[in-house]
Write a structure and sequence with these properties.
Blueprint: H1 2-13, H2 19-39, H3 48-61, H4 66-85, H5 112-119, H6 127-142, H7 146-150, E1 157-158, E2 163-167, E3 173-177, H8 180-192, H9 194-197, H10 216-227, H11 238-251, H12 256-263, H13 268-289
Antiparallel strand pairs: 1-2, 2-3
Helix pairs in contact: 1-2, 2-4, 6-8, 6-11, 11-13, 12-13
Amino acid sequence: MRELEEFLVYIEYERRYSKQTLRNYESDILQFFAFCDEKGKKYLEVDYSFAREYIRYLGEERSEKASSTARKISALRSFYEFLLGRKFVSVNVFKLVGLPKKEKRLPRFFEYQELEELFQVPDLETPLGLRDALLLEMLYATGARVSELVSIKLEDIDFKKHHIRVMGKGKKMRNLYYGEVCSEALDAYLKKGREILNKKHSDFLFLNHLGGPLTDRGVRYLLDKLITKTSVHKKISPHMIRHSFATHLLNEGCDLLSVQELLGHESLKATSIYTHITTDRLKDVYLRTHPRARK
C-alpha cells in the first residue's frame, strides 16, 4: 500500500517520530484496513458514518479501552491528514469524529522508604551489582525515560557539571541532571564495574553481561528481578521510577514548570497529572498535623 509506505516515511523523517510510534501507527492503520476489507469498503472512500462505525466496532465488539481507541483514531487522523494534503481524499473524516473519554489513571509511584529499600539490593562487590546500583540511582536522579538511559554514551556525560546530554522524544536534545549520590555510584561503576564488563569496547554507559549495550527490555527484566528481593509488593517499571522522581520533587516544593523541563514534557498538561497526587498528599499532611483539623 503505497500511501501507507509514504506516510510512514513522512512521519519518520519529517515529523521525526520514534520507531515505537511508527510501529504503533502502522499496526493501527493496518487494523483499520482489515476492517475496511471485511466491510467491502475502500479506505480512500470512507465517510463519516463509516468512521463512526469503526469506533463502535473497537469499543463494543473488540472491547478496546477508551485510551486504546483514542490512540488508534489519533493514528488514523494523522494518516488521513497526510492523504488530504496529497489530495488522495477530499476530507479527513477522522477529524470529524469525537474521541472516547479516557479513563483518568494517576501515575503509580514509590514512597521514599520503598525506593531506599530497593537501592540496598544490588551487590556492590560485583560489576553487575555496581551497574544495577547506578541504573537505579540514575533513573531516580534524572527522571529519564528508559530509552534515554540506555542510549547514554560516555561522551554524553559532563562529569564536572553533573549533567548528561540525551536525545528525548521528537529527537530533541535535553540535559539530565544528577547529584552527589548518583555521582558516587557512577564513579564506582566506571572504576570497578564497567571496564570488566566492557569486553566489546563499547561506547555505551550501561552494558550487559556479554559486554553489549543494555536494552530497554534488559532494564525491565533487571528491575523485575530486583524488586523481588525487597518487601515492596508493587509491580515495577522504569516509568514508575520516573513518576516517583516527579512526585517527590513536587512534594519537596519544586514548581511545576521546572518539573516539566526536567521530564522533557512538551506541554504542561502532561506534567499536571502529578498535581493530583501531591494535592492528596498535602491534604493528608494537613489532616494529620493541623491542631484544629481533628477533634
